[in-house]
Structures are given as C-alpha cells and as structure tokens.
C-alpha cells in the first residue's frame, strides 16, 4: 500500500484511556525509539491508581503532552444531565494531572465510541472549558483499534491520508492493538508521513479558553428551563 506521494500527511498522534501499566510502557518505548511525539489523554480514575502517575510522569519527561480525558470515561458529557457531575468529570481530572498538564490545558471529550456528535459536549462543559482556559481537542481519524486489534494499522493509514492533517485516536488499552503500533508507524514512514506536535484548527473548537471554531453538532441542546 502506498499513499499518493504528492500528499504527504501530517499526523498528530494521540492515545486515549490510559495510563495502563501493561501497555503504556510499550507505547512509550516504541515512540522513544523513533523519536515520535504524542499526546496522552488520560482518564482521571486510572491516573489515581497505584503506579499510574509514574507512567504519565515518564511520558511527560520524554516530551509527550498529557491531556484530560474525563474522570470516569463513563457517560459522554452531552448525555450527562447532572451539571455538577459534568464539572467534576473535567475539573477533578485536571487536579489529578496537576503539574503534568500541558500549558494549554488539553481536554479531549468522550465520544462514546469515537462519535463526533451532540454526545460530545454539554453547554455546562463548554462553560467549564472556556472559564478554565482549556483547549478542547477532537479528532478526524479513528480506526477503532479496540475493535480491530490486528487490522487497525491499514485502516489508520487510509484515514490519515484522507484527513490530512490528521488527528489520530489510538488507545493504550490491553486489547493487543498496540502490539501492532510499529507496523502502523512503518506503513506511515514508507510514504514520508510527518508526526507533528499540535493540532489543526479544524479539530480545536476551543483553544485556551476561547471559542476558536464551530461547536455546531458537538454540543447537546441546552435543557428546557
């Protein structure tokens, strides 16, 4: 498989749902060997587990960004009717991240399986992100590695080519999918893909607490008074 040589994609590599003691170290080892930067969007409840913060600390020390991926990763914020719970999902995780946080206070919402629709955010979530100076990062390439632990690399290659620049969502979870991370990186390298820091404007609707793009379609309607 070769991509169009005239279209060399830029890829922002991100990992959601960790840290996982049995998986995150392997991911970090692979990235270190290839000097590839990534962002790890951590789940607060996992970060609070024994030994997990050390993994996030290692990632930060090796030059990766640490972002917030909600406290429980249980219910998408657009479906969570309790405003106090919405605030806790964001703010409690940020407190747990503490001094490991990226200066832009990166936040990735939970889409309930990679969906980018009104499940993603609620009006309260938008208020919290704006007031707290957060940068909200969405996505445009989701190869569903948790469902396709062996086949996802080829799917990811095609998605990244189509999205260019791509914000690719992978998961450092114990599914076996990250056993194939190097195969994906090899496929991308064959055609000169660039792994970059930062995110394209199209995937950043809120940047440093300011509405930077359209929120249409990713915020649940306000509840009836």
Description:
Its EC number is 3.5.1.104. Keywords: Hydrolase. It comes from Capillimicrobium parvum. Helices cover 32% and strands 15% of the residues. It has one domain: Alpha-Beta Barrel (TIM Barrel), CATH 3.20.20. It is built from seven helices and nine strands, in the order βαβααβαβαβαβαβββ. Helix 4 packs parallel to helix 5 and helix 6 crosses helix 7.
Features:
225 residues, TIM Barrel, five-stranded parallel beta sheet, two-stranded parallel ribbon, 7 helices, 32% helix
Write the layout of secondary structure elements.
Blueprint: E1 10-18, H1 24-34, E2 39-42, H2 44-47, H3 52-61, E3 65-68, H4 83-97, E4 106-107, H5 123-131, E5 135-136, H6 152-163, E6 166-171, H7 181-190, E7 194-195, E8 206-207, E9 210-211
Parallel strand pairs: 1-2, 1-6, 1-7, 2-3, 4-5
Antiparallel strand pairs: 8-9
Helix pairs in contact: 4-5, 6-7
């Amino acid at each position: 498989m070769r991509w169009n040589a005239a279209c060399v994609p830029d890829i922002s590599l991100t990992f959601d749902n960790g840290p996982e003691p049995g998986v995150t170290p392997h991911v970090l080892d692979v990235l270190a060997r290839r000097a590839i930067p990534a962002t790890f969007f951590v789940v607060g409840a996992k970060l609070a587990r024994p030994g997990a913060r050390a993994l996030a600390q290692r990632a930060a020390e090796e030059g990766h960004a640490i972002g917030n991926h909600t406290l429980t990763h249980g219910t998408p914020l657009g479906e969570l009717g309790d405003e106090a719970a919405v605030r806790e999902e964001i703010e409690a995780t940020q407190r747990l991240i503490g001094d490991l946080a990226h200066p832009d206070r990166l936040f990735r919402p939970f889409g309930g399986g990679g969906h980018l629709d009104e499940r993603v955010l609620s009006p309260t979530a938008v208020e919290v992100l704006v007031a707290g100076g957060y940068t909200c990062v969405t996505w445009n390439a989701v190869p569903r590695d948790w469902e396709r632990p062996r086949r996802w690399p080829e799917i990811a290659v095609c998605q990244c080519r189509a999205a260019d620049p791509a914000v690719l969502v992978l998961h450092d979870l114990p599914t076996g999918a990250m056993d194939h991370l190097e195969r994906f990186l090899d496929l991308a390298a064959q055609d000169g893909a660039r792994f970059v820091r930062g995110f394209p404007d199209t995937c950043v609707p809120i940047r440093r607490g300011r509405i930077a793009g359209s929120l249409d379609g990713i915020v649940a309607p306000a509840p009836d008074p």
